[in-house]
Amino acid sequence: MNLQTKLLSGILFALILGAQASYCLAESAVEGDPTVDSSTSIPDDTENFSLHGQSTYVLQYKNQFNSPYLGEKSMLSYGDQGKSYSVTGTAFIGARLWPGAEVYYNPEAVESMAFSNLSGLGGFTNGELQRGTNVPMKFYNARYFIQQTFGFGGGQEHIAGGPNQLAGNVDKRRLRFTYGGFSALDYFDGNKYSHDPRTQFLNWSIMAAGGWDFPANSRGYTYGLIAEYFDDGWTLRAGRLAMPKEPNALRLDWQLTQQYGDQVELEHEHSILGQEGALRALLFQNRGILATFNDAINQANGSTPNILTSRNGYQTKWGYSLNFEQAISDSFGLFGRWSWNNGNTETEAFTDISRSLSGGASVKGTYWGREKDTYGLAFALNGISSSQINYLNQGGSTMFIGDGKITYQGERILETYYSFNVFKGAYLSADYQYIRNPAYNADRGPVSFFGLRAHIEM
Would you place residue 108 in the very low, low, confident or very high pLDDT band (cuts 50, 70, 90)? Predict the structure, then answer.
């Protein structure tokens, strides 16, 4: 199957399963609440069912770069496949069961191939490659969850319909529970300007908090329970989510009592000079059967350490993330993240990053007469812990990095993209990423990545 056929199959998957169908049931306006103007304030378009779809194709090339030596998990300059790509297609099916209860199901297909078997970087260049290398195309259940919302008054606000979101009116003060399978990124670490690699920045450490080892299997999904409380611009959310039975593996530990990730996030929406913004603070703790870098070194007795043979019992990784977004005008916004984890153990579900600072700007094409186009420019500065540096200096490798030796410097990433709106719901993007000190090694690189992205949504 050639590349064009693969792309066409992914798009057809979304077109067939994702042709939007919704049935709207009008309900009476809220009575007895002085904060609601039933004639003009709140649209009355409650959905009982919705069907949406998307397909995304990402193609990337890299240049040849300085590579004086190689390790087991190095990014290759020569002898690598010529390109990296991913094709995904997703259907978003939702239904209202009873007042306050909604159920969602997302079948998904993916085909992907990563540079150097997904090795040699802290911040990987394509967030869609969370799903790993999949050739030929794989079909699976991405999300399957139920939500129950309890309202406590405070006036009403309108929720617009979209993928995994039924249109309707809800109390401003409410409690929502979500149970089932989903992505941790669906609920935590949100950001208006950098959160979705299908439409925004592609780099893993820019689209999300790099230091957050978020609960996920090798496809980027997890299972668990999330509770969220909304009240007048404040949101408090907490969740216990499943970790994979083995680090970076596909199978999850469904018990949620032995290997799991706990997340707590506080979010506040605000307005500065009439422009909307938000602040978020996230705390997380992961528990799993993990190797520590120091244990791997000690058990090696002078030979090359190996974390894969050093998993002696349960370990805890914890950390935090701070996240902001701020509109400067209706067409220009800024964002930033700082994240950190203790860095004592191998990564369980994300990438080899112990601390990360990222930020950037997003500009709508309103300024040049293309209001649905977007230009973005961002950076990320990633680092790892001293114990991991020591482990890598002794020739050790992790699931993602290991050059055999290392001259440590922080990984520095610059990304820019332009998204061109072809027609309603269809976008073409050009993306460029420049990475110095790939995998924290000043002896190698820098390396440039050139990308194209096609995205369609219904």
Answer: very high
